[in-house]
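pasting for ref
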Amino acid sequence: MKPYSNDLRTRIVEAYDNQKGSIRQLAERFAIDFSTVWRLLVHYRHTGKVDPKPHGGGQPPKIDETGLEQLRHLVVETSDATVVELQQRFEQTAHITTSRAAVGRALLKLKLSRKKKQSAPPNKTRIRSKRDGKNTRLR
């Protein structure tokens, strides 16, 4: 979610400073939440600025640059491996516990395509009905 514009933030602070209404009234007037106005005013009192706080940064990726290179070599060695298979092999070689999603994100970062289905016979839980041509489940 994007932060509110500095123009809106400035108008809220100026309206509060000029006693144009309470925090609740300003929230209604500018169509934002009461707690947002409250936090903005507290932030302004502490810093003297209306600029939004910088992004916190988030969790660093488990697969670093060295890990990316190891993963690239695994893909070259086993180009037909699925993401789950790559994850298992990566965990064995790099000794780092990762998720399937983390390996998928790393493959995207490396701009490598990934195989989504295993090479196996098709699933036989569905059959085609002769009546309507739609798939129906076997029970």
